[in-house]
Specification:
The structure is a homotetramer of 244-residue chains. Helices cover 38% and strands 12% of the residues of chain A. Chain A is of the alpha+beta class and 244 residues long. In chain A, strand 1 and strand 2 form a beta hairpin.
Chain lengths: 244, 244, 244, 244
């Protein structure tokens, strides 16, 4: 939306962020926990995130602006998520990233607790997994008795380091974080990470698997906005209770 | 409906095609993507398909007539699916086919990415699988870095070649395509392909499996229209929100 | 209900049979196919069954009385199920049986197609499986190319022979049939057969299993009517759309 | 709520207990069976429990006060659960426990019937499993032909002995019992026991698993009331039909 004025662009972004929260709940990517953020449309070193609360209840007035250190930009801000550093530190080093989702989805967790069977791109809707999904072992950074949460900038930076140039980083025993070039893409990638995990979990029972080649993964991941919007519209209707 | 006039037959076919779109969404065979088509009732070299859109939102006014080359028959037509060639090329070589469903259903995908455990007829509701479900490896036709989509007539013809005389062709890493002698049969076959895949996935854990014999598969697949309608009525009611 | 007059007893039985049809649909035991029957309360050689139709649409006026040969007792009767012989022949030889359910539920089907891992009682709610669940291989009676359906008295008698004194008989590639001393018990046993199959399917992945002993199975299967009614009430409310 | 008067505290506790019953039904932890209890807020040797009935139908007037021997405190009380001794005997020896849930959830049952793959803490939401989940083999206490129910104080005491200092005890072929320092925590632990079981069931297929260390389990299980309330609010809304 390059032509819209900053205030309109901000309001549109907030509206989409609210919808993203509701979609992610309805599709089982987040429950009472988990979060989604987006870069501030006119101040790209800042990002927008709901205050610390359940995604399904998020409204526009719950959105908080956080700065590059993941501190609220306003003086009087509500409580924000303990794990906001996941987002702040990825935005810092990944200028190509516009939106981020953090999830505890049960279908992906098994791939986070073993290195014997990597999560790999198997479906044409999950080409973004083509670079692989590295595992962030927080034990290497926070010791043997941590609470597994990414609750400061140092751990956030370590997570961003594990992510590297990939789209998805698995967090051992905790969940995963996935990025996108837009809110629509981050939500799409989150939902299709779960889908690919389910398919791979079943496929490994059947025999040797033909995964996507690097070339295929790269090609299928060049999704057009039209494709992303097409899924988003269905998910948004379902989140609004208008579809089963 | 041999006695009905062409206009009525066309309208009835369009109505059924709309219902098929809604059923396939509700039963999880399609999501924002996937499609279903039917031969034109009075011009059998043409077929009918919704314009490029989400199946759950399809209405009668969204149905487009495509010719034997999968080009819109009308001068001014809305955008149509990139993958319509799946349908056009199967209709060309399979005169026994009246309707086709293309799906990305996650339960079937694992069988598309390995040749070690073929999808085979195991349930009496899936006799149509009796000839086997060949795998279409698009890499053999589109190279190592394709987007996996069947987006021209050549790839459509290759897919139709893999299908051969079978009812189902698995598309590696992408989904499957299933045919029927009527819209009701194609929808029934799509839903029961998923069911058979689920049962086989579990059965292989238990030991050696007794699959249907060729004779059994042939016999059970001689379904009467009454049986197809019986399922269709339940699915249509559910798609309309009148059943859980 | 020994004190009620025959007409009231019959109407109560029909009402329960209608509810059983709706429960079995809602709980996923039947879909457009599958059926449930009950002995006629005042003529125990006859039984009651919905005409050939989808269980979820059954109303009291759809219930048909069938005689010991599974022929409609009335001169003008609607079309009845091709597979009614399952019921008639079990009622003939099992005087302890008052109600029967026939299902194609996908969770049980895998156990019907292999003899390597028998379905056995593993949960305290499935003591009725204590005698084992024999497999009816219709190929032994109908040859190599049958439609797998039990569509005459001879096949029904063969099925009843396989069932023997058990509560459940698995039908290879087709489904299962389960009996009970009341409609409530047959429905309970059907739903818990599916549950036990799911638990066993998962348990076999974990290691050696402690199944119920014969003594435990016998003890836990002495269910009081109170327990059966307790489940029935929840299922009936859910079938009526009053519970999620 | 140390400042509230006893009558208010009791009413608040009863209200929460009713909500807990509805949540556990909606989340699939209980069905027509299973139960949840809480210590009496002003008489800690007594506890509160619904009369013998389906959890989803429980209202405030169904709550019964039971004494340390699991007998109703009032002279005229409705029928109470056969298995109330599970609760009474755990409250007796575990002064740190304020609430208890007993469930037959199918996802956990497989871990109760084998000793080859223990249920262990794998997710950061299941740190309470860090001490392990011992298996209560009722056969050791009630013989080879019991009904598997904990239906007297002796069996309740044996179960409490198996539980020891853990948060969860698996009951072979029957279900599990889980404790918490509050109703909110017991419900949270019940739901996350099921979640952890599902993740572990899948993870064991993938290779060697990194479980939580004892230190991690201890750290993540120090959940703040805020976290528990956050989940409880979502579950309560869903149980009330206000969320999908």
């Amino acid at each position: 939306m390059p032509m819209s004025d900053p205030a309109t662009a901000l309001q549109d972004t907030i509206d989409d962020l609210v919808t993203a929260n509701h979609i992610l709940f309805r599709e089982g990517i987040v429950d009472a926990f988990g979060h989604v953020t987006v870069r501030h449309p006119s101040n790209p070193s800042h990002y927008l995130m709901a205050r610390s609360m359940q995604p399904v209840f998020v409204a526009g007035t719950d959105i908080v602006e956080l700065n590059a250190e993941s501190k609220p930009a306003a003086n009087e801000a509500p409580a924000v998520s303990l794990e906001r550093f996941i987002h702040g530190e990825i935005y810092r080093v990944r200028r190509d990233v516009t939106a981020i989702v953090h999830s505890h989805a049960a279908a992906v967790l098994p791939f986070s607790v073993t290195r014997d069977t990597p999560l790999r791109a198997i479906c044409h809707t999950a080409g973004f997994l083509g670079r692989g999904a590295p595992i962030f072992e927080i034990r290497d950074f926070a010791g043997e008795s941590s609470n597994l949460l990414v609750q400061n900038n140092q751990l956030g930076a370590a997570l961003a380091g594990s992510l590297g140039k990939s789209a998805v980083v698995l967090m051992r025993g905790h969940g995963f974080t996935v990025v996108g070039g837009s809110l629509q893409e981050a939500v799409y990638n989150a939902i299709n990470t779960v889908l690919n995990a389910r398919v791979e979990m079943d496929a490994i029972r059947l025999g040797n698997i033909t995964y996507l080649t690097e070339g295929e993964a790269a090609t299928v991941s060049k999704l057009h906005n039209n494709s992303l919007n097409r899924s988003w519209e269905v998910w948004a209707k379902r989140a609004a209770g208008e579809l089963p």
